[in-house]
Every structure is written in C-alpha cells, then in structure tokens.
Amino acid sequence: MGHQDAHDTDGTNAGSAPADPADQALDWFARLRNGEPDVATQAAFEAWLTEDPRHAAEFRSLETLWNSKPFVDAVKTLPVDRGVLVKPKARRWPLPAAALAASVLLSVSIWQYPALTIAVEADYLTATGSQTTVPLPDGSTMMLNTDTAVALDFAAGRRHIRLLRGEAFFDVVHDPAHPFTVSGHYGEVEVLGTAFSVKTGDDEDEVVLERGRVEVLCLCDNRDRAELAPGQAVSITASAVSPVHAADPSTMLAWREGRIIFEDAPLGTVLQELRRYHRGPIMVVDERVNRLMVTGNYRLDNVEGALRTLADAAGVGFYRLPGGLIILR
Fold it and tell me: What does the alpha-carbon distance between residue 191 and residue 212 come to, in Å, rounded to a whole number?
C-alpha cells in the first residue's frame, strides 16, 4: 500500500459506536472463549452472524489474529500469576481472550521495566501520558515529557541533571561560571545558556537544539563529540556521536504543546512514539502495517483516537481489548 494521509481530527471520531461490527465481534469472541456457550447464547451468536456480512468477516479476522504466529509467540511460555502459559489453542482458554491478552502483554512490560530502581533515584517523575514543568534552583526551567524521570545535582554550584528515562526540554539561564550539563544513557550535553531537549532510548540518546549552542559528548571510550547550532540534532550511541543533521524543533518538540506531528513516516515509527503516551500495549500483527507511510498531526491526550484515525486512513483493522490493549492488523 502507498502513502496515507491522516491529518488532525483532534479525536472527534475517537469514540466507538455500540453498533460497530468490530466491537460487537470482539464482545462475542471473548464470550464464546470464556466457556462452552449454552443453546440460547449459541443461537444469538448465529443470528448475529447472519444479520450483516461484516459480522462474520470481523469475527473471522479475530480468529485469524488470535491464532497468528506473532500472537502465539507473544504469549508462549510467559509467566502469569506464577503459572506458565502454553501455546494458544484454537477454541478455548481458561480466561476470556481479551483479559488473557491484556494480562500477558502487561506482564511482559512489567517484567522488563526497572521502574522501582528508577523511582528510588529520581527527584522528579511523570506518569505515562503526563507532562510537567519544573523550576530549577538556578532559575532555569525543565519540562518533562511522558514517562520521564530525572535526578538533580545543584549542590556546591553544580548544575547537573541525569535523565534516567524519557525526554525533557531545558531552558537554561546563562551562567558562564557554572556550566549546565545533562547526561543521558550514552551522552552528555554541556551548555552555558540555551534551550534544548534530550531523549533517552534503549540504543541511543537524542539531542535537539532550539536556541543557543551546546556541546554533545559521547560517554564512550573515544569521547566523540559534536557542537550543535539552532535547528540541529544529533544522536549518541554506546560507541559514537552521529553526524549533525538538520531538525525542525517545532515538529520534534511538538510534545510541549501536547501534540505529535509526522510527515511521510513509517507507521511503525509513529506507533513506537505513540506507545510512550499510551498506558496499555499497542500490538501490530502484520508487519506490512509498520511499513505504511503516514502523515498526521494529533493531540497526545487522545492517543486511542489518533490510533483509530490512523488505522482508518491506512485501511488497517483496529481492535481494542480490556486493559488498554490495542491491536492493529
């Protein structure tokens, strides 16, 4: 499939109508897999199937999804409530399909996430989907994006911040005698007075400069470094600093206004960013979905609405399960 436009709807069609065949199919899917249906339930289900050709199509899509290899791999041999899950069966589960899927994927995220350690170290934290602005002791300001944690050191004239997780924007008061430094997982930024952002990731840190000048240092053995001018960005990995490249702060830092903006971006990249703002897992079953190119401008306070609109624009199936689990296929 080619390029898809999915411009800002501000979530006006984010709600799900009760008569939506996909939602009805999901309800029936969970009910039928929660036990052997009685005669009345089976009759009602068969009547629903014949009401509209879309009903049978949506239900078949869910059965295909539930037995697909990516979904089977996701739940295979993962611990849930001290037990062990085994390969999914085609017909019946000890839990409703929706509850099981949400439980499994939430367990994965909890198991992989060192939240307790970060909570102990952090001076300020934000929850998923939240943002906050913090005045710093030197008069500078710091804005924390979603799911972010920082530790401060302003003792004895120092101005140093450790970004333990997430993304933060800094508007720094000029003080030549006391450089302002921010360290991430792989790099450190030093400034005298400027405005910039730092975002940490599993494999790299990213620095975007809006105003002033900063020096970026790799915390690796070769001490690789780069200097940024306004409208430039750089990434730092465990071994090097990337070449400096142009960046549009109004787009890359749109989160400060509660928005996400992207143009001709792979849907998989957009979903990875939206996952930072959504409290439940977002799962893609068909890899082709990740490769679709999309353009859009969305509010971050309605991620589910953005996902529904993106799915509709890209011709992708959208399923929402209890626990906040969203599936695209």
Answer: 8
